[in-house]
Structure formats: C-alpha cells, structure tokens
Amino acid sequence: MKNHPKNRWQDSVAKTLDPVARLVYRSNLIGQDPTLTNTGGGNTSSKITEKDPLTNQDTEVLWVKGSGGDLRTAKRDGFSSLYMEKLKGLQKNYLGSKTNGPKTQIEDDMVGAYAHCTFNLNPRPSSIDTPLHGFVPARHVDHTHPNAAISLAACAKGKELTKEIYGDEVIWTDWQRPGFDLGLILEKLCKDHPKAKGAIMGQHGLINWHEDDKKCYELTLELVGRAAEAIEKKDRGEKTFGGEKYKSPSEKERKALWLSILPWLRGKVSAQQWMIGTVQEDATILRFVNSKDAPRLAEMGTSCPDHFLRTKIKPLYVPWDPATGDVAKLRGLLEEGLEVYRADYKKYYEKCKRKDSPAMRDPNPTVVLIPGLGMVAWGKSKSESRVTAEFYNCAVEVMRGAEALGGYINLPQQEAFDIEYWQLEEAKLRRMPPEQELARQVIAVVGAGSGIGKETAHRLAREGASIVCVDLNQKAAHETSAELVKKLGEGIGVAGTGISGCGPAIGLGANIVDRKSVAEMLGEAVYAYGGIDGVVVTAGIFVPPDLEGRIPDEKWAQTFAINVTGSYVVADEANKIFKAQGLPASLVLTTSVNAVVAKKGSLAYDTSKAAANHLVRELAIELSPLVRVNAVAPATVVQGSAMFPRDRVMASLAKYKIPFSEKEGDEELRTRLAEFYAKRTLTQSPITPADQAEAAFLLVSGKRFPRTTGQVVHVDGGLADGFLR
Ligand SMILES: [Zn+2]
C-alpha cells in the first residue's frame, strides 16, 4: 500500500558487512523510503564493541548518524563515534548542575562536550539527538520522522491513540525540544516500561529499539505500518480536508498561470534576499490547496521541528478562485497576503524573542499555496527549495492523517520559535561557508552545447549559479547540463513537478531565430527555477564564402538572423521576465573582434558582428536601468569551437601557407592554427574558450562591473588592429 513502508533488507548483502557498514546499510534503507522519513530527518545508531586504540582493550562505542547529511545518502563518514562510557559520564556533569533542564544553558553546553567523547579521532560532529541514542539501553536504535507516525504525534488525541494502536509496546512522550534532557526522559521511559519497544514523541516522530539490527529495522517498518493502517481505517476519502472547494484548471492552463506569476512572485519574495523556486502541483498538493480546510490548516503551520527552519512558522495561502482565471486578482491577493505575512512574522518574532535571540530573519514566506495551482517553495538554492517543498508535502500528509485520526494540532508558537531561533542553530548557520558569488542566481547560457558556451556554463556553475544550458542541438545542451549535475551533485530534497524537480542545471533546446522557441525555452527555465537573472548568448554562425569567394544571399540572411536578430530576440524575451521580477539582471552577448577589423573572406560574418556590437549599445539603453548589457568579443578561439570545423581549419592553414598533412588529426591541425594566430597577438599565447568564459563571468556577475553597461570587451590576445577608437 502507498503509505506503508516496504521491507528492503537483504540478508545476502547484510551478511557481507562489518557492524558499522550494517548500520550505514540500515540507515540508507530507511532513508530511501519516503514513508519512513524525510530528507535530513531522523537518525540511527548501533552500540558496537571496538578495540580502543589507546588501550588495546575492548570498549563500547556508540555509532550514531552525525550532524548534517541525510539517512538516504549517508556513508560511514556521516556517522560520529563516541565512547559510551564517556557519553554516559556526562550525565553526572549535567545532573550535578543546579540549573539543568530543557532549554537551559547547560543543556546546550552538553553538545560541545560530545566532541570530548569522540572515539578514534572521528571528525564527524555529533548531532543534537546523540543522547536519545546513547541513553536508550538497547543496542540498535532508529529515530525516524514518518508521516504516519507524526500524524499520530500531531493529533489532538495522540496520547490515547498511541495506547489504542500499540498497547504497552509503544509509549507516548510529550513534546520536548530535542537535547540532553530528552535523552534522559527516554532512558527513564525504558526503565519504567521494560517491555516497551519504542515511543511516539509528541509533535515530533518515532523512536524504537532492538538488540538485533535487522529486527530493529523491521520493527520501524511494523510500527509505521500500524500507524498508517489506523489512518486508513479512518480516512475521510472525499471529505479529506473538509472536501473540495475549488477545481483545478487543466495541466496546460495551470502551467500558463504559473508562468504568468512566477517571475513577479519571485521578485516579491526576494525583496530581502534572492530565492530560487520549486513548483509542486501533483494530485496530493492540489487536493490540499483546493480544499475547504486549507486556509485553516495552512495557518497552523507545519508540526515536525526540523521543518520550521525551511518552511517557516506557516505558509502563505491566498484565497483565489481559480474558476475566475483572473491573474490580476491573483496578484492583488498575493500582494496583500505578502504584506500581512510579513507583519505576522514580525509580530511572532517580537512576541517570542528572548534576551539573546538572534536578529529577525527574512520575513518573507518560503511556501506559497494557491488554490487551483498548487505550491511554490523558495530557498537559497535549487536543492534548498526542493527540501522546503518536500517538507510541506510531508506536512500535508501529516495533516491528512492527523485530521482523519481526530484533529491536527500545531506546536505552540514559542516552541516553534525556540527551534527556529535556537542559539545552536544560529551557530550552525554562522559556521556555514560564505555564499558563492553567483549563489541564488539563475543564468541561461545560449550556445552551451559546445566551445565557449559550454566552458561558460561550467565557469558560472563553479560560482554557484543555477545554469540553464541552451543549444540548438538539444542533445548537446543535455550533455552539458548532465556534466554539471554530475560535478555538483543533485543536492538533497525530493520534490518538484516535472522539470521543477531538477538539480543545479537543466538542458533545453531552442532555436534563437524563432521567437516562439525562445519564449518556450525561457518558460521552461522559469518553471524550473522560478525566474532568471542573467543570460549569456554565445551562439553564432560563421559561413565561409563559396569557391568563388562569394556569400550566397540566403547565407547572408542566415548569418544576420543568428548573429544579430537571434541575440535581439533572446534579449527581448528575457527582458519580459527581468521586468516582471524587478530584480537587477544582466545580459552578455558575444560579438567578435572582426566587428571592427575589416577582412577578406568573412564579409557577412564581420558585418553581422559589427551590427551585434551596436545591438549591445542599443539594448543597454533600452533595457536600463534594470538590466546591464555587455559583450565579449573573442578572436580566433580555435580550441573546441564549432565554428572551426576541420575544413575551415585546413582552408585557413592553406591561406596562411602553413604546411600540414591531411593525415593529421583535428586537434593537431587546430593546435597548429591556434599557435599561428597566437603569434599575431601582443600576448603571444593561444586564446582559449576559458579566456572567454572568464570574461563572460565577470560581465554577467552583478558584483564585478556593476556600473558597466553598453560595452564590448575584447578577449583577443591583444590585436592592435582591433583596438577600439
Ligand atoms: Zn527527530
């Protein structure tokens, strides 16, 4: 059944593994199953006898999933290891303090003490949940965040229902912020209920234990399955969330509506810091946003503690009727909703803040719910926004279950605040490396399938941008985006509808001389990331003259269509998105040194590039003040260039009377030509795609030349003939 976990354990695999590897194996099995836990949620442990490197004696070591990372993807290095004796020894220290208890300074100080308990110099920091695992006496412990169990944990009658479903096997514990004290509560629970196999932790999740690791895993499955069964028995079917209030438009209409508001909405939620979006519009989320109870439940917010940090205390829900199809009305409601949301957030902060609370964070919502359309979640990166969307998907499932079981309850605001603004969380945020220069930005590279475009895509991705790789050759665009995703990783978070579930790069095909094709490509980019902040166009064409040295008319027209009109069309369509967003943006075109140096044999190309140079200036004026428009003008970049196919290289070698043999490979011939070109320059070294990519990066970034627009930068090794006058 859909909400029931599946047993994935294989004895044939497990028996080949050492005890720590078995823990990693068990953790990955749990992490893989969306009915068992959410990204980054939950942790697992085993108490293992090891040889102490200091004494050569056997000692008991707690291996427990450490801080950061994820059960789904964790490897051995994701687990911390602590001497059990030392960890237990901390209790004396803690209990000896007169001011101990939940949320006290000494409780937070214990987290710093875990490092002193480290076994065998393991560098992985211990998580806040370490005592939960250390103080439960059983050898193996699983702590998970399953939607079904949280439904029980976040239900008004959770305590009674836990008894009803599990009898004496699983014991209820009231909500308490995770920490050392919660570990002591679990220890006492095990003592008081020696037959108990686990506990439902109020408004939080499930914890269970066993002496055998496989049985511990199976127990997790069984307990979650029993909660799911209880929910199914009381499932309200058509009446879920009070029944349907709004109907969703067709998929095609929904997409058009999303595209008409996403860039605008992104501009609004990015007022303080830029955000990247993930759209979710599957049946589950649509049933929720279209329901009668959605406004009431949305207002209550999510319930699992590790959700708040990303979903915030609550989402923004707007009461728009999709049957009207009225986009202006929707914008109005969103605008009003955002104002109320920010004011509410400020009130919540002021009401709950403590003497030493960190300063108020960005008051904009990270989850926006729209009837008929679904949800868009926002985060500092694609991966983060996907996690945010995943967490709200989980929240919807939790609310469905809790409502079926007797009524969803949320965590009191002060408790949510004490998680969101916890000093330990703040310290974690401060320890994070500074954001990359192009973080939070979406940049399309048109021509990314090869040469300078491909190099530029890699260069910009290295600076943290999300990259839309575009090429006439769709396959080549996909190849570049696949390279980037492989290099950077998909990130975490399992959510997003269609292309919006993407990673840090996507590949799209587009023909820049076809306005419709360009608009569709930009639409896909907006649906994938919420908007666009920059476009670099490297696509271009060079048509060599025929045998008589002439350019046929249709080739002349094609040269201008691609090198001039194509750049204009991309700029014009992208500008619609830039204007809707209202955020500073940047456009970088590629012209050529030939634009200012008249030469024999490239009449159409040179003239088109001269027009492109002026297009840069015209666009800089037209698109100001929001968009900066500049260009890179390369010369003679031979390496990896689609504009230097073998026959053109040979024609050029012949033209310059450079000896070569037809038997030589493409790269040899290209290197020979590049070296010849290099000798004509002032800097005397070949000009590479990487040189061009560097210039494109400097111009597209809003931080390097923020007050430069309408300019063409030559990256040509230094050609005195090309000096601009
Ligand atoms: Zn937890």
Characteristic terms for this protein:
about 725 residues, elongated, binds zinc ion
Helix-strand makeup class? alpha/beta
Principal-axes geometry comes out as elongated
Q: Segments where pLDDT lies below 50 for 5+ residues? A: none
Total of DSSP H or I helical runs spanning 4+ residues = 25
Topology, number of strands: 18
Strand order of the largest sheet: 3-2-1-4-7-6-5
What does the largest sheet look like? Answer: 7 strands, mixed
The N- to C-terminal Cα distance equals 73 Å
Bound molecules: zinc ion
Cα-atom radius of gyration: 30 Å
- The amount of helix comes to 40-55%
- Mean pLDDT, to the nearest integer, reads 95
- Beta-sheet strand percentage? 5-15%
Topology of helices and strands:
Blueprint: H1 11-14, H2 19-32, E1 43-51, E2 58-65, E3 79-83, H3 84-95, H4 105-114, H5 130-135, E4 140-144, H6 147-153, H7 158-166, E5 170-173, H8 180-192, E6 198-201, E7 205-210, H9 213-233, H10 251-269, E8 276-280, H11 283-289, H12 294-300, H13 305-311, E9 316-317, H14 327-352, E10 367-370, E11 374-379, H15 382-405, H16 413-420, H17 423-431, E12 442-446, H18 451-462, E13 466-471, H19 474-488, E14 505-509, H20 515-529, E15 534-537, H21 553-581, E16 585-590, H22 603-623, E17 627-634, H23 646-655, H24 666-679, H25 689-700, E18 712-715
The protein binds zinc ion.
